[in-house]
């Protein structure tokens, strides 16, 4: 495997990890025995004694109790569950093969062994009304997860959603409705005690995703697998997306890397602003200067001035962040910082 063959200067033998995330696919689709082999490989490759967050992404379908046992025994301390919806019709539209009953039973089982559970929900699904979204949020809150992520449905080219939309089988939700859905999520989750710490992410106190914060704070991380992206020593790399190409390259002793880009100080600074604005705490002026050598106002003065005037960003002595209004239009705002 790539993990077994990767021994670079940046990845020493059994490095100590702060966080470990297994996902970007659905590892829990593996049979319990293979899942156990994967966990064993991770323990052989990395020192996980002091790992703060060991998270596995899971699809509620086919996530049986024997797999929960395997993960709990391996030291997994967080599960990110792709719930998406509790409504049978919406789940069907999303091509999901689980049900409300499966989710409820699963969360109950997880609570016994891996209580730090995060639920992913999707809004803006064709056929989903504001009232139905409200029911989804209420049901998710009543399951008492430690963390919730809410994402607007995107139609990415090449996916079956995109093809169904092109054929006229699906119609994208109106933008105004999506905005109302997002506003409702912010309101209901705040009332239920979830603090919003990033555009799409809400957590109970001290249950923010440590791993995801590493991405958004522009820190370094390594990754393995087809399409895996990593950021090390000022360099961004991405593996071949095709599983077959990736596998052939690994087996023949070649690098699986398809794209590599060394960031200039300016590019790094722009990235830090774009990522930082996703976070509710925003971009910290002093930290920005320490990491990039640039003064935030000097570097991005025009964009800052423009969006302070539009009311889409706000500032205090320490930092610059999106306003609540700005969170609805984040993509439009960050373009001006690029």
Query: Main sheet, how many strands, which sense, barrel?
Result: 7 strands, mixed
The counted number of beta strands is 13
Rg computed from alpha carbons, rounded to a whole number of angstroms: 21 Å
Which CATH architecture of the largest domain would you pick? 2-Layer Sandwich
Strand-and-helix sequence, N→C? HEHEHEHHEHEHHEEHEEHEHEHHEEHH
Rounded average pLDDT: 94
Shape: globular
SS content category: alpha/beta
Helix fraction?
Answer: 40-55%
Low-confidence stretches: none
Family: Belongs to the anaerobic coproporphyrinogen-III oxidase family. HemW subfamily.
Pfam families: HemN_C (PF06969), Radical_SAM (PF04055)
GO cellular component, one term: cytoplasm
GO molecular function, one term: coproporphyrinogen oxidase activity
Architecture overview:
The chain is an alpha/beta fold and 338 residues long. It has a 7-stranded mixed β-sheet. A 3-stranded antiparallel β-sheet has the order 8-9-10, with no helix packed on it. The protein folds into 3 domains: 214 residues, Transcription Regulator spoIIAA; 43 residues, no CATH class; 67 residues, Arc Repressor Mutant, subunit A. The longest helix has 17 residues. The chain is built from 15 helices and 13 strands. Helix 3 packs parallel to helix 5 and helix 6 packs parallel to helix 8. It is 44% helix and 18% strand. The model has no long low-confidence stretch (mean pLDDT 94). Belongs to the anaerobic coproporphyrinogen-III oxidase family. HemW subfamily. Keywords: Stress response. InterPro entries: Coproporphyrinogen-III_oxidase, Elp3/MiaA/NifB-like_rSAM, HemN_C, HemW-like, rSAM, rSAM_horseshoe, rSAM_sf.
